[in-house]
Amino acid sequence: MDQGEAAVWAAGIGVGATLVMALAALHTGRRANKAALDAAREAGRAQVEAALAGVRLQLDGHREDALWQARRDAYAQFLNGIENVRMALVHLAVAGPRYFEEGLGRGSAVGEGLTHAREQYQNLLLRHSALRLSADDPEVTDAERLSRLAGRLLEDFDDYAGAFPAGDPTPAWRRFDEGLHELRDGVEEWALDARRRVQAQRGAGAPPPRPGDD
Predict the structure, then answer these.
(1) pTM of the model
(2) Which end of the chain is less packed: N or C, by CB atoms within 10 Å?
(3) How does DSSP classify residue 105?
């Protein structure tokens, strides 16, 4: 091989080596770019997942807050309703004997008191229905028992008032008086159990107390 051919081969080898190195660098660059792109995708995916997890957690918190508040409100409304009925019955327990047994007061006042007690009882039934929609705790069963007791007391007072023309009102009065004491004790116990359950739900992840809460 003469010097000219050697120079050509040398030049060819040099160009080939340069091309190989360039291709290798390009491949390496592509791999680096792909790795960087994959890393960016993974980082972006992780950020999206973290953001979604935060949103889910926030939505779960709002849902738990709403459920807790609805249950708390249903408890409070039922307690208010049963207390309204009880106080109306207490009023009858005072006004009834004064009119029927002592000849004091007015019969119309007793009639109005009985009408008011019945209206409060109807309101109580609506609140009891709302409680059943908001909770399935043992307090709901106990609330139903108290509602039935309140309705029975209205019937007992009717029996007491109607017993005077017919004879002895004592048995009806005894049932009414004993039932009224049973209602008072039952409401106190129910309120205590409901408060404990609401506090337990708050401690298990429900929202913190609001200003003015007990």
Answers:
(1) 0.65
(2) C
(3) S
